[in-house]
Amino acid sequence: MAGILAIAKKEVLEGVRNRWIIATTLLLAALALSLSFLGSAPTGSVGAGKLAVTLVSLSSLSILLLPLIALLLAYDAICGEFDRGTLLLLLSYPVSRWHLVLGKFAGHLAILAFATVIGYGSAAIALVATGDDIAGWQSFTAMIGTSILLGAAFLAIGYLISAAVSDRGAAGGLAIGVWLLFVLIYDMALLGLLVVDKGRIITAPVLNGLLLLNPADAYRVLNLSGLGGVSQFTGMAGVSQDAALPVGGLIAALLAWITLPLVAAGLVLRRKQI
Description:
By secondary structure, the chain is an all-alpha fold. It has helices at about 1-15, 20-40, 45, 50-75, 80-85, 85-90, 95-130, 135-165, 170-195, 205-210, 215-225, 235-245, 245-270. The chain has one domain.
């Protein structure tokens, strides 16, 4: 445990030196504040409160931005050390390869969680300052927590890429490809299948499985349909009614997307010749 904490502390300090924490926090805060003030303008016409509209806007922002930030943090976490020749030096200390993966993951997760809580928390403070009511704050808090889970899932995927690929350039290209696949291409392909199939093969149980195969979709359904009754303000209402995925199952899917790639990354690194 001491080795994991030491490596995690090293990653956090490097994040401070490289301005990763500051840049990520400021980016999320700026976008969250913009969505809070500009995105809540039409609330009178749709009959929704500022908090509900902000929740939907920030959830959509998280799906696009947090996976990309997580993959950029993680894609060279291992192969970058290999390229710089520091991986062997790290392993010369009394830490195992599993400790190295878990410690680096914990450090990057701390950076991402800090940026998410402060960035999105600024939007909540802004809504309080403008006199918004407190109804629905449990959903807002849950959105922040599940956003951290979403980031952790893509951190784990990034670690698997970094452990499997030795070249930083190849790892970066693969990370961008993974982001495009899960965030953009997967949903467009799924929508096309649903239109063509017309319910013949893709029944509700099959749709459930297809949604759980994508961490971004699990997060999307969880926040835009499964929490706080905000589905009527989103385009996910119809999909959520067909899928009927429970909140516990969606959270379990996100946890599985964190655990399985991280374990796979540790196994790959364990067998890798250094």
